Amino acid sequence: MADRFFPNEMPNFVAESTVSRGTSTDSLTNLLSLSYKTLSDQLKTAAFALKETVVRETWGLSGKRVQDYTVYTGALGTAYLVFKAYQVTKNLNDLNLCSDIVKACDSASKDSGRVTFICGRAGVYALGAVIAKHSGDTSLQDRYLAKFKEHIGKDTISTVHMRAVVDEIIKSGSRLAGKGRCPLMYEWHGKKYWGAAHGLTGIMNVLMDMELKPDEVENVKGTLRYMIKNRFPSGNYRSSEGSESDRLVHWCHGAPGVTLTLVKAAEVFGDKDFLQAALDAGEVVWKRGLLKRVGICHGISGNTYVFLSLYRLTGNAEYLYRAKAFASFLSVRAEKLISEGKMHGGDRPYSLFEGIGGMACLFLDMVEPSQARFPAYEI
């Protein structure tokens, strides 16, 4: 199965999609012609139906027993989706359900040594504290916050602790970079990854949230400029240092994740070069990002967030149209294409980062596009 539906340039989404697929043409064209308010209402309705499916498959049919508790592929991702639905509807049933799932995830994660938000216990306690606050349960909120600090370490969120972490990140990156052309470099499982999930892009994204010294700012800028200079001739970004495979156009590897970080760099540093690089990377996503996958980590749902981010940065309605186009394609065709085996529904098909849980999350974010953020990455 080819990696994407439309490998060629897409100057006109409707024309390309009509010619390439030949099915559901009228439905897709009609959605694209709707006012944004009407489209977002339809996507919201679709999101609620998807949410019910996700809850049933990941929570109801499991006997409310949690094996995978993570945000990435587990029950906590379901809780995240249900909480987003609550934010849209203010339905207390959603809030209560979310609280129940988090409590089950808390129990299931008690022996875990993982500490991250996406794949560890920090996600359980952080989301739990937010839900408890919305529920008005201050004692439960305090309990989750205490467990967050207890698990991660003393004074986890203090500036002193963050400074120590930044020092270590910079020192480690400088050491591995050595006298190379890139100021900072990191290695994971034997590879020097560039991507947002576990590479240079994601690390630079985190560093831009910290208070940096002038030389550290230059290191971050220099690392991003190194990546821009050494991107593929197509405009896409390498999955790892030295890779010559210009294939992946995902959040985890390739232009989509890099675009989100370059948007942030343009906002933080006010640098026109980063703005232009973000726009260029966004073009790669538009031309090559309609993948045969549904998820937000490596699929159309995640790539749609690129256009929402560019819309928020520039105010250019063209990016909102592109988000509308990708979301409309998912709404009309994803479930049918998955059932026909023409689209990959994800190894964990109901999960937030790989499956239709992420698609539902995207549809809910389309309700207020200026407020949309890629889950657990954009702040």
TrEMBL record:
<protein>
    <recommendedName>
        <fullName>LanC-like protein GCR2</fullName>
    </recommendedName>
</protein>
<dbReference type="InterPro" id="IPR012341">
    <property type="entry name" value="6hp_glycosidase-like_sf"/>
</dbReference>
<comment type="similarity">
    <text>Belongs to the LanC-like protein family.</text>
</comment>
<dbReference type="InterPro" id="IPR007822">
    <property type="entry name" value="LANC-like"/>
</dbReference>
<dbReference type="InterPro" id="IPR020464">
    <property type="entry name" value="LanC-like_prot_euk"/>
</dbReference>
<dbReference type="Pfam" id="PF05147">
    <property type="entry name" value="LANC_like"/>
</dbReference>
